[in-house]
Write a structure and sequence with these properties.
129 residues, 434 Repressor (Amino-terminal Domain), elongated, XRE family transcriptional regulator, DNA-binding, DNA binding
Length: 129
C-alpha cells in the first residue's frame, strides 16, 4: 500500500502537470522516463527519489517545497481545490476503485451515475451502453 506522503507528492505532480497542460508522455520524455513511470509516481505507488523530485520540480516550474506540500498557497488555489477534495474521506478509495474498473462502459456508467447524483437527479437509469 502506498505511503500517504507519496500519494500526496504524486497528486501535486499530477495537478501541476495538468495545470501546465502537459501529458504524462511529455513529462516522461523530458525526464528520460516512460509514461508508466510517471503514472506510478502520480499514483504514489512508486516513491520519487530526491534527485528525480528536483528534476520534476524544474520541469514543472515549481519548487520541491511545493511538491512536498511545504509551501502554503503555492500553485494558486490547489490546496482548497482539487487537492483539498482528495483530503475528504473516501475520495482516494473511490478513485482507486474507479481505476480498477477495466470496462470503459462500466466506467462511463459509474461516471454518469455520480454526476447525476451530484445534480440531485433521482431518475437516473444505469445502463452499460
Amino acid at each position: 500500500m502506498p505511503d500517504p506522503i507519496d500519494i500526496d507528492v504524486g497528486a501535486r505532480i499530477r495537478v501541476r502537470r495538468k495545470e501546465l497542460g502537459y501529458s504524462q508522455a511529455y513529462l516522461a520524455d523530458h525526464l528520460g522516463l516512460t509514461f508508466q513511470q510517471v503514472q506510478k509516481y502520480e499514483r504514489g505507488s512508486n516513491r520519487v527519489s530526491a534527485s528525480m523530485l528536483v528534476r520534476i520540480a524544474e520541469r514543472l516550474g515549481c519548487t520541491v517545497g511545493y511538491l512536498v506540500g511545504e509551501e502554503a498557497g503555492s500553485g494558486g488555489n490547489l490546496e482548497n481545490g482539487l487537492l483539498g477534495r482528495f483530503a475528504k474521506p473516501g475520495v482516494t478509495e473511490l478513485v482507486e476503485a474507479f481505476d480498477s474498473i477495466e470496462s470503459p462502459q462500466v466506467r462511463g456508467a459509474l461516471l454518469r451515475l455520480a454526476r447525476s447524483m451530484a445534480e440531485g437527479d433521482d431518475d437516473f437509469e444505469v445502463t452499460a451502453a
